[in-house]
TRAP transporter small permease protein
Amino acid sequence: MKFSLLAVLEYLCAKLSIITLMLMAAVTFADVFGRVVFNAPLGFAYELVGIFLAVSFYAGLYHVHKTSKHIRIDLFDGLFKGTPGVLVFWFGYLIEVVFFGALVVMVYQTLQDTRLFGETFMFLGFEKWLVLLVMFVLAVIAFVSLIVTTPETRSARLPRTERQG
């Protein structure tokens, strides 16, 4: 039996994303139902949905990076064939790595700042840095996915008609 840490991370991130989306829908339903039927909405629904959305987003980034399914502008893809196409593809990949690496660092810095200042959620009452820690760990996992999915491995997964060169 072959064991792959990346496959385990992908599985866990996918399940976490699905679970948080379901929880987000359940909290939203309970909030609206309570507001309409009992005239008593959940006070903490806004914060909880925000947390679930952030966790779902960062958990889903692993798959997005691995499959290169993010939004991209491909207007000029037909103009760059062969070596220039490979160079443009690598240039775009390096920009993506730099910017996402900067995002990971910024999430970490925000985590440290909120921990240092002891910021808490207004209605939930626990400290914000705990949620940011989860987001940071998921962002690091997504960054690993981006690093191991180089343009060479991405183009190998494309159909023959879409490959560069």
The chain has one domain: 5-162. The radius of gyration is 20 Å.
